[in-house]
Write a structure and sequence with these properties.
The protein has helices at residues 10-19, 26-35, 50-58, 120-123, 132-146, 164-175, 195-202, 219-225, 234-248, 266-276, 301-313, 337-340, and strands at 3-4, 61-62, 67-73, 79-84, 90-98, 101-105, 109-110, 128-129, 151-154, 187-191, 209-213, 252-258, 281-287, 317-321. The protein has 345 residues and is an alpha/beta fold. Strand 4 (79-84) and strand 5 form a beta hairpin. Helix 5 crosses helix 6 (164-175). It starts with a strand and ends in a 5-residue tail after the last helix. Bound molecules: S-adenosyl-L-homocysteine and iron/sulfur cluster (SF4).
Length: 345
């Protein structure tokens, strides 16, 4: 049986070393070479005894690497990276620069099962979950090519909480002091709002910032936009979020895609304020990014500004997100748009 060592947390590598009759601290060398020095050749990790390296290789252990197949740049500085997985599926990651902040937006699945009607990824056939190794390697490869980033957002293709175990393992790996050392305050996980894993996330010993894609404050409109909402009412979602906030003390960000005539009325803004009531929250309003076949239109900018000022007047911290990376289909919800025309129906 083959084992991808990049896919193991440091604790798991220590168990692996112990079970091979080796000192557990050897796992630290292994982990640091893989996650700090980006080494993919096991035989080059010379602080490990040669006999141990040979034993690992003999047992089918290896260190995986994604293959970067294409890089595209938008005039606004946004870059999009296309990776191909060993089984041929394609995933995308984005690098955004904003004065002195560099943010990487990474994928957690090839495709997405949630089927949101306003999202290009949601229209792709679901292929599979990514492994933790495939999630963290997006960071390593982009940083090797372009330098270090300060922020990481799990907002690329896929629903992170639908791939809970691998996503949690990737967080554990990325924030490990012997690896990439990325602080949890610099990591945001964006979810469409699946409640059971939100509660599980609250119970972890580390907590990323949480962003929740809300898009409507009434169940009927939300179900129309997001088929997954039929199983997760807003009542249940808010209960889980209150629990997350109680356990972690973290403020929650809500993402709200502004869709013409669907969720951008003054009534919707009032309902939103009512719904979020006592939560410590802030809201990002995102102008809908179109893609071929998208059944919706973006709200006009004047309506977005009015919606924002209603929220602000009520004391809600609100930011309007401007379009980024559209010329290369790298904006929110456009990932996978170029694959859309190519997949079998
Ligand atoms: N599955 C997760 C994370 C990936 S989607 C989630 O849904 O939160 C990342 C963000 O892009 C989400 O807030 C999503 O609602 C938003 N998004 C999806 N399609 C979009 C579109 N066409 N225009 C603007 N934002 C979009
Ligand atoms: Fe999946 Fe998020 Fe797109 Fe919905 S918005 S289909 S959950 S990636």
């Amino acid at each position: 049986m083959t084992t991808d060592l990049k896919n193991k947390t440091r604790a798991e590598l220590a168990d692996l070393a112990s079970s091979a009759g080796r000192k557990p601290y050897l796992a630290d060398y292994l982990f640091t070479f893989i996650h700090q020095k980006n080494e993919t050749n096991l035989d080059k990790i010379t602080p490990l005894p040669k006999s141990f390296r040979e034993e690992l290789i003999g047992r089918g252990s290896f260190i995986s690497a994604l293959s970067l197949t294409q890089t595209q740049s938008d005039p606004d500085g946004t870059m999009k990276f296309l990776f191909s997985l060993p089984d041929g599926h394609g995933i995308e990651a984005v690098r955004l620069t904003d004065s002195n902040r560099i943010t990487l937006c990474i994928s957690t699945q090839a495709g997405c099962r949630m089927g949101c009607r306003f999202c290009a990824t949601g229209q792709l056939h679901f292929q599979r979950n990514l492994t933790a190794a495939e999630i963290v390697d997006q960071v390593y490869q982009i940083e090797s090519a372009c330098g270090r980033a300060n922020n990481l957002v799990y907002m690329g293709m896929g629903e992170p909480l639908d791939n809970f175990d691998e996503v949690v393992r990737s967080l554990d790996i990325l924030h490990d002091p012997k690896g990439r050392r990325l602080g949890m305050r610099h990591i945001t996980l964006s979810t469409c709002g699946i409640t059971e894993p939100i509660r599980k996330l609250a119970a972890l010993r580390f907590h990323p910032r949480l962003a929740v894609s809300l898009h409507s404050a009434d169940d009927e409109t939300r179900c129309q936009l997001m088929p997954m909402a039929r199983k997760e009412s807003l009542g249940r979602l808010l209960e889980a979020l209150r629990y997350y906030q109680d356990q972690t003390g973290r403020r929650i960000t809500f993402e709200y895609c502004m869709i013409d005539g669907i969720n951008d009325t003054p009534q919707q803004a009032s309902r939103l304020l009512l719904l979020l009531g006592d939560l410590q929250a802030n809201i990002n309003l995102i102008e809908l990014n179109p893609f071929p076949g998208c059944p919706y239109l973006p709200s006009p900018p004047s309506r977005i500004r009015k919606f924002a000022s209603r929220l602000e007047k009520a004391g809600m911290e609100t930011v309007i997100r401007f379009k980024r990376g559209r010329s290369i289909s790298a904006a929110c919800g456009q990932l996978g748009a170029e694959q859309l025309g190519k997949q079998p129906s």
